[in-house]
């Protein structure tokens, strides 16, 4: 009885086939080679990058530019009339009486204000009063704001003359009868 019992065989891992070896070697050589070629192509290509020198200079100029600026307007431009200034600047509040503003053309709302005189009304418009922000120093000159005051008060029954550039900002300080 000679039964051969095979004991003590050493167990080894799965054997690698030659096909697996060949693929591993190919990937180990070709993958780094492909990556190097792609990097070389990117480095020598002529396409415009997102952060080119001109864009970097423009971004730097924008970051270091002055915050404020000066706008120089034409001093010889033609002055606009009171109606134009009213429609552009004053109508937003005075057309509907927003925030207690006297409504355009409402004589009862304007009477007490008209009695203070034209100069006081112009001063209130230029410096602001109550909820009304100062109108001086904006898109219109002080003379044009005075013309708008004359236009609004005329619609409420006053007879203030629209100021002329030669005569100053309205010489009459009391309403005409």
TrEMBL record:
Pfam families: Cytochrome_CBB3. One of its GO terms (molecular function) is heme binding. The chain crosses the membrane at residues 24-44. It comes from the Bacteria. The keyword Transcription regulation does not apply. Keywords: Electron transport, Heme, Iron, Membrane, Metal-binding, Transmembrane, Transmembrane helix, Transport. Residues 77-156 form the Cytochrome c domain. The keyword 4Fe-4S does not apply. This is Cytochrome c5 family protein.
